[in-house]
């Protein structure tokens, strides 16, 4: 599947302005299916069940969810109930709480009749700002990648990434992918090692889809392959996104990120984390204080996808008990730099 344009805005208001349109990421890359979310419940389900996902995108969807709720009930009780429902949909990414706080602050103190419009306007602004933040992350990351490529100008630059921190996970450009897209567009030869990212395969399904769509050379690898590739000198840098960076610089991201950081450290490979300020959580002291989402064991024990004939099938991987923590924490000491909209920082 190829989309029109290399990357697109992955969330927008519906034609009547009352709902939102998102890509159903459960269908990608096999089908490009836009869905309309028209009320609070639909927004909550889409976040909880991961029709849409990725820290900034969850925040943007929740912001519109609150606006849609206020269009029905703009009272303080309605606001509190909708806020409480949305904030519990996924516990780890701080962008969710950040976006809800933004909308709440924008409407509190307004007459009820003006609240919904103000909430929609704030949600629109969150989206516009997110696209701009990611573009700026891309510009700073581009300088970084240009410098890394200059060390070995005779061969492509090999970047390893984990999960999907692309435009599907944000409003546009992505965080970890923005420097890659800009480097590719600037003529720097980039090749990406894409961790498949079990159990939900965001790398194999979503990041590979994005890179294919953009024409960026890439190779999907099993999650356990990265260490060997680093040992063999086949990885110049790791770039990942994040769901939350705490006051001390610890980085919470998709399960498996920590093992990549350890392998990178052991092999002298720089490990970068790309994030907008909306993912920084100065109120949380360290990664140990972050709630780690526990998802259904079936995500580990079952695989679902189309067979060769295109029929959707679910297969059993095991019938044993399974544990499915969705995120892990990479200690700040393993992070070479944070690629932000303000530049590449060695500490946050
Ligand atoms: O469970 P997901 O798919 O929502 O997890 C997404 C990630 O871990 C991303 O790397 C992170 O949210 C950064 S998105 C720019």
TrEMBL record:
One of its GO terms (biological process) is L-methionine salvage from methylthioadenosine. SUPFAM superfamilies: NagB/RpiA/CoA transferase-like (SSF100950). It is an enzyme of class 5 (isomerase). It holds the Pfam family IF-2B. The keyword Cell cycle does not apply. Its EC number is 5.3.1.23. GO terms for molecular function: S-methyl-5-thioribose-1-phosphate isomerase activity. It comes from the Bacteria. Substrate binds at residues 53-55, 90, 202, 253-254. Pathway: Amino-acid biosynthesis; L-methionine biosynthesis via salvage pathway; L-methionine from S-methyl-5-thio-alpha-D-ribose 1-phosphate: step 1/6. The record marks 163 as: Transition state stabilizer. It catalyses: 5-deoxy-alpha-D-ribose 1-phosphate = 5-deoxy-D-ribulose 1-phosphate; 5-(methylsulfanyl)-alpha-D-ribose 1-phosphate = 5-(methylsulfanyl)-D-ribulose 1-phosphate. Keywords: Amino-acid biosynthesis, Isomerase, Methionine biosynthesis. The active site is at 243 (proton donor). Catalyzes the interconversion of methylthioribose-1-phosphate (MTR-1-P) into methylthioribulose-1-phosphate (MTRu-1-P). Also catalyzes the interconversion of 5-deoxyribose 1-phosphate and 5-deoxyribulose 1-phosphate. Part of a bifunctional DHAP-shunt salvage pathway for SAM by-products. HAMAP family: Salvage_MtnA. Belongs to the EIF-2B alpha/beta/delta subunits family. MtnA subfamily. PANTHER family: METHYLTHIORIBOSE-1-PHOSPHATE ISOMERASE. This is Methylthioribose-1-phosphate isomerase. It comes from Sphingomonas trueperi.
């Amino acid at each position: 599947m190829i989309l029109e344009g290399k990357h697109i805005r992955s969330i927008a208001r519906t034609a009547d302005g009352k709902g939102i349109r998102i890509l159903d990421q459960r269908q990608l890359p096999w089908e490009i299916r836009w869905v309309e979310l028209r009320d609070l419940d639909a927004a909550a389900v889409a976040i909880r069940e991961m029709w849409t996902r990725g820290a900034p995108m969850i925040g943007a969807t929740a912001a519109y969810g609150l606006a849609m709720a206020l269009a029905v009930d703009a009272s303080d009780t309605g606001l509190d109930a909708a806020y409480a429902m949305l904030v519990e949909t996924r516990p780890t990414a701080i962008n969710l709480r950040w976006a809800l706080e933004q909308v709440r602050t924008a409407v509190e103190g307004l007459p009820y009749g003006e609240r919904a419009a103000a909430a929609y306007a704030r949600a629109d602004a969150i989206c516009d700002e997110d696209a701009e933040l990611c573009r700026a992350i891309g510009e700073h990351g581009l300088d970084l990648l240009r410098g890394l490529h200059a060390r070995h100008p005779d061969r492509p630059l090999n970047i390893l990434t984990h999960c999907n921190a692309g435009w599907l996970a944000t409003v546009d450009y992505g965080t970890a992918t923005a420097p890659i897209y800009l480097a590719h567009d600037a003529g720097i030869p980039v090749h990406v090692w894409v961790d498949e990212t079990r159990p939900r395969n965001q790398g194999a399904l979503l990041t590979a889809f994005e890179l294919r769509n953009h024409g960026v050379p890439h190779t999907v690898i099993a999650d356990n392959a990265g260490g060997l590739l680093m040992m063999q000198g086949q990885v110049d840098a790791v770039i990942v996104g994040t769901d939350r960076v705490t006051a001390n610089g610890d980085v919470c991201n998709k399960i498996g990120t920590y093992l990549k950081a350890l392998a990178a450290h052991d092999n002298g490979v720089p490990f970068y984390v790309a994030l907008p300020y909306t993912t920084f959580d100065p109120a949380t002291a360290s990664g140990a204080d972050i709630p780690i989402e526990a998802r259904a064991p079936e995500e580990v024990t079952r695989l679902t996808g189309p067979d060769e004939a295109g029929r959707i099938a679910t297969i059993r991987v095991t019938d044993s008990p399974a544990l499915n923590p969705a995120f892990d924490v990479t200690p700040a000491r393993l992070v070479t730099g944070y690629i932000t909209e303000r530049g590449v920082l060695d500490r946050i």
